[in-house]
């Protein structure tokens, strides 16, 4: 019998708040975390989703603050919050039955910038002993594994904005192969001066100064996207184990995932959205359902005209003339790269649990986008199946189908 | 269960710019390690490295590609071209939606990121850097999955694609990921491998800071000494290997030449320390035993072990203990070697390069030696194949990897029955 995978814990460290309760409360209040960037005059990007009120010292011992980057601080804090939400104590588990899978796109970039600066200003002897473990993409998975005594297979996946779902897919493979629980997700902290410059080479970045108008997916005059920091970590478990414990909350089942690549051009996605549509169809097939079963789509929401057109084509290809509710709650956070899809999966799980679709939030939300775009929190008591779509720059596509449990 | 096999190999390693040159280099046991030539290494503690003499244009890469990509991505593309040609896959008849990409890398575009930073920050002086002074492809450099995109676009691979970045086990884990995608019917072909080009001032400095690399600057060729009593650390390297990993029936149907089958893969974490290793090798031994179980092998079935063998004091001891715990008495009779003695430690790439060596050892009945192993270390008392390659019929080869973060991985390649 196939081992089924369920989400039992959510830890958000996001522009929408810290911890699952605050994150959901701010979501329902349509409280956007996109704000002007300080000292951005010289930069092409003027606004970003920013995590506010995050006191890393409240979550982490001093040793970790010194050894790791802000991106890892957020991953560690999100993990701690997710474990508490799931009521899982890793120290009470058999360590080889637990795994960690994170996604990262920009690693410990602030840490790295500081140490390169030290090297060029003051020479090799001034480089931190922690540079070798602070900036590389595996730092968060490694530190989580050490902190929580996780000794099963660990993973680190890079596929930019698709990474959060790709990590979830890997967690599902591990659980099907025998893992009991996986700490999975992604965070990103790309607001260091140098990382912002790196992000600025993307042509799809919004140059708009007004935070309420900077990132408007599916608007006819969409200006591009804004970046952001943060993300989410989840606890996913094998279903029977979650019921036996019992887990305080079984938010949803991870019923199917899929990944494709456009293989179109090194710098831009295919205009037809065909591979995005295929990812959605394959994920639905793996979940044992079809497009008609989908009650809500958490769209990728590129926010640039070409990306939005491709996604609308994909939705049309999958759903035909049916107007399925579509939402882009990341309009409250900006695009968090690896953290983004992880947070979208969290939103979808919360949505199924509470029977409410979270809103798409920005000024002048279009009435005639051709989509049933959910712009206010929408009560949907029969909500059962959510499709989450994600794309990473270069042409990565990923889809996840989350489903409320029948007896829930 | 769907089975996966290796049908193509491409390698660029120090002292060996192709699969054949690489093989000759490692079986010859002559280290390709020298004083660093890319920048002046004088200020650094470790001034040596295993460098590739890699001219991307000689591999048919275009000026646009060279301008766009970091060295690690160029190495990956050049290796993938060799592997793809070796597999004799016919692009015109492929089902592109069933072809994926799994590329390992520990540090991605680190050279490009550092070089551009130095320019944009006025030689490291300005914290807020000037965006007008950087090249147009810096987002590609920041996010290493851009290299997986390059591979996907080059071969029209529309299946799952990702970069696997688990530090120094990335190379094994990326092939393991490909194996999993094939087992789970997510793809029929995966372009799988790893690449790293970390020989840059910041990387050399960061390993200097923890004294992980060898300071034996006076005689570079003798600096990488896995399992030797006088070992003083690893020698930084660069390179790449790409394997074409294919579902068995798919390969058989097109009468592909099959190097070997991927019969076992497992990973563990030690949850101990980001860089430190406990001497007992417990978690690595667990990974090895799991990989052997999945391959349905007993310890005495193994004919070769490609060791992680980085040449640090703690690794070689840790690893020796892991082999003894996992394999028992049989560990004493299996030829083991570390090709890092010849081509250095290319971080995430080396795991895939070592898997390529295992595939070639199975095909050719020859085990590459460990160079520079001249003085026995009482704590490393297994058969590490010192100095000279050995003729051995290799039906089953194990490779182990151990890396920062505490990650431990093991993989088994086996000769396909009847081949």
Q: Mind describing the biggest β-sheet of chain B?
A: 10 strands, mixed
Number of strands of chain B: 14
Give the rounded overall mean pLDDT of chain B.
Answer: 97
Strand order of the largest sheet of chain B: 5-4-6-7-1-8-14-13-9-10
Give a short account of the largest sheet of chain A.
12 strands, mixed
CATH topology of the largest domain in chain A: Peroxisomal Thiolase, Chain A, domain 1
Question: Biggest interface: chains and residue counts?
Answer: A-B, 84 and 89 residues
CATH class of the largest domain in chain A equals Alpha Beta
Structural class of chain A: alpha/beta
Architecture per CATH nomenclature, i.e. the level-2 architecture of the largest domain in chain A: 3-Layer(aba) Sandwich
Helix content bin of chain B: 25-40%
Please give the count of helices of chain B: 13
Into which percentage range does the β-strand content of chain A fall?
Answer: 15-25%
Number of strands of chain A: 16
**Radius of gyration of chain A in whole Å, from Cα?**
20 Å
H-E string of chain A:
EEHEEHHHEHHHEHEHEHEHEHEHEEEEE
CATH superfamily of the largest domain in chain A: Thiolase/Chalcone synthase
H/E series of chain B: EHEEHHEHHHEHEHEHEHEHEHHEEEE
Quaternary structure annotation: heterodimer
Principal-axes shape call of chain A: globular
How many separate helices of chain A? Answer: 13
Protein name (chain B): Beta-ketoacyl-[acyl-carrier-protein] synthase family protein
Keywords (chain B): Acyltransferase, Transferase
Pfam families (chain B): ketoacyl-synt, Ketoacyl-synt_C
Family (chain B): Belongs to the thiolase-like superfamily. Beta-ketoacyl-ACP synthases family.
